[in-house]
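Reference record
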Amino acid sequence: MRKTIEGAGLEPARAPRLGDRLYGRILEQIISGHFQAGDKLPSESQICQAFGVSRPTVREALTRLHADGLVTTRRGSGTFVLRRPPGQLATLAEASDVAGLLRCMEVRMALEDRAAGLAARRRTPRQMEAVLRALDALRASFGEAAGALAPARADYAFHHAVASASGNALFAGMLEMLHGTMLRAMDVSHGMRRAGSAEWSRRIMEEHEAVADAIRRQDAEGASLAMRHHLYHARRRVTEERGEG
């Protein structure tokens, strides 16, 4: 039976960021199981009618869902759900907030791999010590009780220490501008980590260690690659089923 977007009884989205709100509404219905893997989403015109939004807004939301690996478009057939994100995502963040958190990750991917490469070239001994102290604090924070913000704060401190070591104060300044959103995204990520396996926690720690080690060795290419690898997987962990990365 063909499913409709109205099935969950959602009222039209009216927030300024309609694309984000619509992304969140569709994501909610995928997480809840209303739309399951293999299901076809309603057409663009049906979604427009259900939520009172324009086609460009619908296309923006679908494009973001596609970029996150949640849906695929088959020419001439429509848009289909590929997989369901982890259920705990809905308990850690409002679905309408997820698009903003992932957009923050996109900005970080554009900034932080470059900052890490510069840090490897330019870091002073004192800056290297700061990066390693932040790494130790992050490792220690993994034992914090559920709900504690310490892991998110320690995670942010590590990334800020790397940016500060780049020798360009604008990198650290940009992260400071993103501080609130980064902290929220990191809190969601660490909440999912706590709900995951010990292997998942180990991988996350190893990603940070790889960045710090490349900076310590003054391997600019390696530091940039390690940071890019970490941020890519950090973003994917938000939308992938537990244990996939």
User: Anything to note?
Assistant: The longest helix spans residues 95-122. Residues 7-16 have pLDDT under 50 and may be disordered. The chain has eleven helices and two strands. The radius of gyration is 20 Å.
